[in-house]
Amino acid sequence: ARNHTRRLLVVAEVALAVMLVIGAGLMLRSFWNLMQVDAGFSREQLVTFGINLPQAAYPKPESRVQFVTRLLARLRETAGVQSVAALAGLPPKRQVDANDTDIEGYTAPEKGRFENVDYYQAVTVGSLEALGVPVVDGRSFEPTDESGGPVVLVNQTMARTFWKGESPIGRRVRPGGPDTPW
Fold first, then answer.
1. Which residues contact 76 (CB under 8 A, 6 or more apart)?
2. DSSP 8-state class, residue 144
């Protein structure tokens, strides 16, 4: 009976070891495949990090903006740094906004219904350059945009979906519905 039990334990150990090796191989293959996916930005020579500012120390949006402005200025002074930017989240790891959006010049299939835009992302001037994202049509953000009203860049998918073959330049969007400014 003891020999039979030992054999069963050995078979179980070998089976578990084989499953573990297969699982590790699948995980490595998945990791390799993820590394080959086009993230939409250049990952070469890119360093990223996250910051969570405590609400108690930075209660107002202006104080958070001032902190980020000072941080970006200091990082630009660092030797070897080519460009610096701040983003609300790095693709693809972002929170889904799922904002109802009124899109100028677009009629939704259902009357009175807004389109749902999943991602809005706040960025600083130079973010596209820092990520190596080319501007296909129009221009990137400029320092003068910071003091004016909201400025929006859209990706090619949004432009194709809502302005079918037309240029989105000069068009307006209203995230959050009719109570939000264009």
1. 84
2. G
Instruction: Tell me the two tokens of residue 175.
Output: 């995230």
Cα distances (angstroms) measured from residue 10 to each of 1, 13, 15, 121: 14, 5, 9, 55
Q: Which residues neighbour 10 within 8 Å (Cβ) at sequence distance 6 or greater?
A: none
Rg, C-alpha atoms of the chain: 25
With beta carbons less than 8 A apart as the criterion, state whether 128 and 41 touch: no
- Rounded Cα distance, 43 and 114, in Å: 35
**Residue 171 · residue 180 · CB < 8 Å:** no
How far is Cα 84 from Cα 180, in angstroms, rounded to an integer? 31
- Whether the CB-CB separation of 147 and 65 falls below 8 Å is answered with no
pLDDT digits (tens, 9 = 90+) for 38-63: 777 777 788 888 888 999 999 998 89
Residue 60 structure tokens: 């107002």
CA distance 97 to 79: 36
Q: Does residue 123 sit in helix, strand or coil?
A: strand
Nearest-angstrom CA–CA distance, 41 and 127: 11
**What pTM does this model have?**
0.65
